[in-house]
């Protein structure tokens, strides 16, 4: 390795480290603001609303991971979001005296608890199921789809069709899941009242911490060689395959992670909203998730969070102030983004050099990748090793 290349590589590493430290400092400051300052400035109702929106920001990160970085437009993340909600909801509904059944089962003549409900009596199992069930389902669905090299609009159609199947299934199971009404009227969790103010504040703080942890996970996954491979799959999957990689394995993995993240978000939303129903698996809700990412700016983790918070707060504000016409404001917002800001809000700020937080400039595809300093340094390192 030449001296100039070594100096350039060290400078690149120092720049990355400095950028990560700045980013970590800003995120830490935002976390402190959300946990210690915001709760003193807004009412408990608004705080609960903010907690729900932060949980929706978690699922937006998962969608950005699969769509923004890997190029797979999923219109079925409501499935995983709803399954996470039902997993924790089933545990909450089982917090009844020994020998009794959840209240809704008695209305439909159920006399014995269904076999698959029994494991959810244990909180550790329910907590693991929140991420494992959606993640495993996403991996199975992804494997069946990606091994047949289905992608593009066909992948989107299949995920949307799967959403319809799950919505109709849960909607029609009155005896097992209370049908259209879903699981409601949660009482206690680990011996404390779910709806009490201390419990709701605990859920809010936990949501903030999980959002930060999810952001850190996605940031780590999209950095380095794995992140560059995801971008390469998005930009030119055929060339990735010709280079000796199997895109199927990576797409299944990232889809499973994205599904698990959505399940986690669904569980936190259920804890703070006090209910979960088949509406979480509605096609329209899954499309809304994609819209959040598009408005914030796909391919940017910060954009996913900003888009989820902005759209949901705008919807809440306009529905309160303009109850009869608020849908027109929401439609206008979507049209403005599509026509004026096709890269989303963060994409527009990037082009204006006004935002650098969380921005890792997207790798250009060929031939610009040949002059990428990271690629050059790695290539020189490989050549040096071969000579030795």
Automatic annotation (TrEMBL):
Localisation per UniProt entry: Cell membrane
Name recorded for this polypeptide: Urea ABC transporter membrane protein
Entry membrane topology: Multi-pass membrane protein
Keywords: Cell membrane, Membrane, Transmembrane, Transmembrane helix
Coiled coil: none
Pfam families in the record: BPD_transp_2
Gene Ontology cellular-component annotations: plasma membrane
Chain segments annotated as transmembrane: 20-43, 49-67, 72-92, 122-146, 153-170, 201-218, 250-269, 289-313, 325-349
Keyword Disulfide bond: no
Keyword Mitochondrion: no
Organism whose genome encodes this protein: Chroococcidiopsis thermalis (strain PCC 7203)
GO molecular function: branched-chain amino acid transmembrane transporter activity
InterPro entries given in the database record: ABC_transp_permease, ABC_transptr_urea_perm_UrtC, LivM-like
């Amino acid at each position: 390795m030449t001296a100039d290349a070594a100096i350039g590589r060290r400078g690149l590493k120092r720049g990355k480290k400095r950028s990560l430290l700045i980013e970590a400092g800003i995120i830490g400051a935002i976390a402190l603001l959300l946990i210690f300052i915001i709760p003193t400035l807004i009412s408990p109702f608004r705080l609960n609303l903010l907690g729900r929106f932060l949980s929706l920001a978690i699922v937006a990160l998962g969608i950005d991971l699969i769509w923004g970085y890997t190029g797979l437009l999923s219109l079925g993340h409501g499935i995983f979001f709803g399954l996470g909600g039902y997993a924790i909801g089933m545990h909450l509904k089982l917090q009844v005296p020994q020998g009794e059944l959840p209240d809704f089962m008695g209305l439909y003549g159920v006399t014995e608890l269904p076999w698959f409900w029994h494991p959810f009596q244990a909180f550790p199992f329910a907590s693991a199921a929140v991420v494992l069930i959606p993640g495993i389902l996403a991996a199975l669905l992804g494997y069946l789809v990606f091994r047949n090299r289905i992608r593009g609009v066909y992948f989107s159609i299949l995920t949307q069709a799967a959403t319809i199947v799950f919505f109709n299934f849960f909607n029609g199971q009155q005896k097992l899941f209370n049908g259209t009404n879903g699981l409601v009227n949660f009482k206690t969790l680990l011996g404390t009242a779910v709806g009490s103010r201390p419990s709701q504040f605990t859920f809010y703080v936990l949501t903030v911490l999980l959002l930060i942890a999810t952001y850190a996970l996605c940031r780590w996954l999209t950095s380095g060689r794995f992140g560059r491979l995801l971008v390469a799959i998005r930009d030119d999957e055929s060339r990735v395959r010709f280079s000796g990689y199997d895109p199927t394995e990576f797409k299944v993995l990232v889809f499973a992670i994205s599904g698990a993240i959505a399940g986690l978000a669904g569980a936190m939303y259920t804890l703070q909203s006090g209910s979960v129903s088949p509406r979480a698996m509605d096609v329209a809700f899954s499309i809304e998730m994609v819209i959040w990412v598009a408005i914030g700016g796909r391919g940017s983790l910060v954009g996913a969070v900003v888009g989820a918070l902005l759209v949901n707060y705008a919807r809440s504000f306009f529905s309160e102030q303009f109850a009869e016409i608020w849908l027109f404001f929401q439609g206008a917002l979507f049209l403005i983004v599509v026509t004026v800001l096709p890269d989303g809000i963060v994409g527009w700020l990037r082009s204006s050099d006004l935002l650098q937080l969380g921005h890792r400039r997207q790798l250009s595809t060929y031939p610009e990748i040949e002059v990428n300093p990271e690629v050059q340094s790695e290539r020189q390192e490989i050549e040096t090793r071969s000579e030795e």
